[in-house]
Write a structure and sequence with these properties.
- It is a single chain.
- With 183 residues, the protein is an all-alpha fold.
- The chain folds into 2 domains: 83 residues, RNA polymerase sigma factor, region 2, helix turn helix motif (Rna Polymerase Sigma Factor, Chain: A); 93 residues, Winged helix-like DNA-binding domain superfamily/Winged helix DNA-binding domain (Arc Repressor Mutant, subunit A, Orthogonal Bundle), CATH 1.10.10.
- Helices cover 71% and strands 0% of the residues.
- The longest helix is centred in the C-terminal third of the chain and has 23 residues.
């Protein structure tokens, strides 16, 4: 079923359409929730809450092009993730708090330096970032959100999102260089 038709039928309350929507998109939305939840159980709870909200507000969805349904659902889910964990205010404070951040002017690592690091170690490096920077980094690099979209999602200024991403990259560059010099 085409996504525009699927959304229209879901908005009418069609049970089969809702089941198809859930079956089609739940794996991707669960993966999205797992990026921001403490554990799988929390991620599954968030995803279920997201679908409840999606079904409640799907009549507001306006189809624009192929893929716009998932994009809209991902935005609803992301907003729910941040709202439910009460991170918006805390993240905004963490992002604005520059205390303890050493500004390091380093060149970004080249592909060869990064390619030699196991994926699990790179993921661990990202998880070691300060929470605010880690969140902005994930929203930009994993979710593909612009600085403007990140700012809107987190309730911060666009410049703060941009600066936080830059700082996250500086910290990651330093971690990558340190890892490569441990040999």
């Amino acid at each position: 079923m085409q996504e525009a038709e699927l959304a229209r039928l879901c908005a009418r309350g069609d049970a089969k359409a809702r089941e198809e929507l859930y079956r089609t998109y739940s794996p991707r939305l669960l993966a999205l929730c797992m990026r921001y939840a403490a554990d799988r159980d929390s991620a599954e709870d968030l995803m279920q809450d997201a679908f409840i909200k999606i079904f409640r507000v799907i009549r507001k969805f306006r189809w624009e092009r192929q893929g716009s349904l998932y994009s809209w659902m991902a935005r609803v889910t992301l907003n729910l993730c941040f709202d439910s964990m009460k991170k918006r205010r805390r993240l905004a404070a963490l992002i604005r708090d520059d205390s303890g951040l050493e500004q390091i002017a380093e060149d970004p690592p080249d592909y060869g330096e990064t390619a030699s690091i196991p994926v699990e170690r790179l993921q661990a490096m990202v998880e070691e970032l300060p929470e605010g920077y880690r969140t902005v980094f994930k929203l930009h690099c994993l979710e593909g959100l612009s600085h403007k979209e990140i700012a809107s999602t987190l309730g911060i200024k666009e410049n703060s999102a941009s600066c936080s991403l830059s700082r996250a990259r500086v910290i990651l560059a330093k971690k990558i260089k340190e890892y490569n010099h441990e040999d």
